[in-house]
Each structure stands twice: as structure tokens, then as C-alpha cells.
Amino acid sequence: MIQVKDLKFQYPGSDSLTLKGLDFNIEQGEIFGFLGPSGAGKSTVQKILYKILSGYKGEVMVKNKALNKWGKDYFEQIGVGFELPNHYLKLTGKENLDLFASFYKLKSQRNLEQLFEQVDLLDALNKPVEAYSKGMKMRLNFIRAIQHDPDLIYLDEPTSGLDPVNAQKIKQLILELKAKGKTIFITTHSMHTADELCDRVAFIVDGEIRIIDSPQNLKTKYGKEAVNVKLKTGENQEFPLKELGCNTEFLQFIKQGEINRIHTMEATLDEVFINVTGKSLGV
């Protein structure tokens, strides 16, 4: 779906490159995540891919066609959920979506009430957006990005500003879009979001990609092949996963008292990120 080779970009007036030769591919029907701290270059990559920024160097192919060869028809193919809501505040939610829908040759007539209901905004359908909370505006942002049924969806921090319940609803909708064959490119600094959603992730720091792999592979590679067992007495001990069922020390330990919890010792994505990049997402 997307092939990027040696992508470089420098903002006018800057003394250094923001993107320093990125290489990555995104497959059809994949949820691909760009993870990194603020200023790493995540949003710059997306802005190039949805044709807000030009003047880049390198090769970018989308659907086997060079990005710079695409015309206005490109925007029929993509949906964009920006990091910050950008709506017409005096218009209602419905009027906003009607306006943006008029820019596209819609493949089918979308049921706006159904879209609003999916993100729990049906009661706000006819309310002016200036009366929406930030979380409501983010949910409106999301359905605006998908209302024309695009094949390729770019989402910048899709769960930012959302409470846990609505964040989970958005995540579920993203997975449903993937199940329909949509290709989704997410930029985020939320490792938890990436872990739940992404088939593969790229760690980007200072305009460079440090590693690309699936979250599960990364957590396994940089964690321990072991389990930690904690008894209700407070005692806890680690045991290797290999031949755990035949490990006499493990069997003796779990007979000592009631088990409080057993969990694997795979690394978290946050721990992997720090291990690979030497930086935390807070910088």
C-alpha cells in the first residue's frame, strides 16, 4: 500500500533535517504505528503522506504510484484524523459532516446518525460544535475522517483527550475498519494504544527509525522468558518458561500457599522503547 525509501525533509529556516532518510513499508489491511516522543518527526511523516507538506527528498509510493504523481483524486482515497480538532464551531456536528462530505464523490450515502451513534454523539448531532467538549470534538474528528469510506486512513493521536470509555470505543472502531480491509497509519506516543492496535510499530527518535517489528515480537525479544509467581503470603519468585511444568522448584513453590498472581516477564513497549532508543517518551 505504502512504500517509503530514504525519506528526508527539512523545514524552511531550519539548520538540520527533521527526517533523516526513513525507510518503511505499510501493507494493505495493516495497522502500522509510528511511536516516538514529541518532535521526533511522527506528524511530519504523516503530513507528507497526506500531501500537506511538499519539498521532501526520497521516494514515496502509494498504491504503486508515486505520491507526487497523484492529483486531487488522492484525497478520495484517504481519510485524515488530525491531532487537534479543526471544525467550524458555529455549525452543528451534522452540518460539519455534511460540508466535508460535499468535498468527496461518496461511494455510498453514509448514514450520519449511525456514524454519530458509533462514537456516542447522537445526542449532539444538531448541537453547535462550539458547545462540544474536547473529547466530543475528537470523536467528531474521527467520524469525519472515515465518512467517505477511504481505503487508507491516517490517524494522529486518535485517543488523545478521550476518557477511557470513549478511547476504547475508538480503538474498537479502528479494529473494525481493519477487519474491512482498511489500511491504517497511526502516530502516537501512547505505547498502550499501539500495543492494543498495531500489527507493526516503528520507533522514531530525532528523525530516524530505530526499529520496526510487531509489538509482541519486541516485548518478547527484550523481555525475559520467565514467569513471576506471587503467593498471597507476599512471597514471589521467578521461574524460566522452558519446561515450566516439569520444574520441581516451581511445583514446590506453588504448593506453599495460595497463588495471588502469575504473569510473564515480557517487557512492556515503554521498556522496549527505552532499551532500543535510550530515551523515554517524556523527552
Structure description:
By secondary structure, the chain is of the alpha/beta class. The protein has two domains: 218 residues, P-loop containing nucleotide triphosphate hydrolases (Rossmann fold, 3-Layer(aba) Sandwich), CATH 3.40.50.300; 42 residues. Helices cover 31% and strands 26% of the residues. The chain has ten helices and 13 strands. Strands 6-7-8-3-9-10 form a six-stranded mixed sheet, sandwiched between helices. A four-stranded antiparallel sheet has the order 2-1-4-5, with helices on one face. Strands 12-11-13 form a three-stranded antiparallel sheet, with helices on one face. The longest helix is centred in the middle third of the chain and has 16 residues. It is globular, with a radius of gyration of 22 Å.
State the gist of this model.
The chain has 283 residues and is an alpha/beta fold. It has 10 helices and 13 strands.
Properties at a glance:
283 residues; six-stranded mixed beta sheet; four-stranded antiparallel beta sheet
Structural class: alpha/beta
Report low-confidence residues grouped into runs of 5 or more.
none
| CATH class term of the largest domain | Alpha Beta
Order of helices and strands: EEEHEEHEHHHEHEHEEHEEHEH
Residue fraction in strands: 25-35%
User: What overall form do the CA principal axes indicate?
Assistant: globular
What is the count of β-strands? 13
CATH superfamily of the largest domain: P-loop containing nucleotide triphosphate hydrolases
**Helix proportion of residues, in percent?**
25-40%
Span of the ends, CA to CA: 32 Å
Our Rg estimate from Cα atoms comes to 22 Å
CATH topology type of the largest domain: Rossmann fold
- Biggest pleated-sheet summary: 6 strands, mixed
Query: What's the number of structural domains?
Result: 2
- Put simply, the count of helices is 10
Instruction: Let me know the average pLDDT.
Output: 89
* Side-by-side strand order of the widest sheet: 6-7-8-3-9-10
* CATH-scheme architecture of the largest domain: 3-Layer(aba) Sandwich
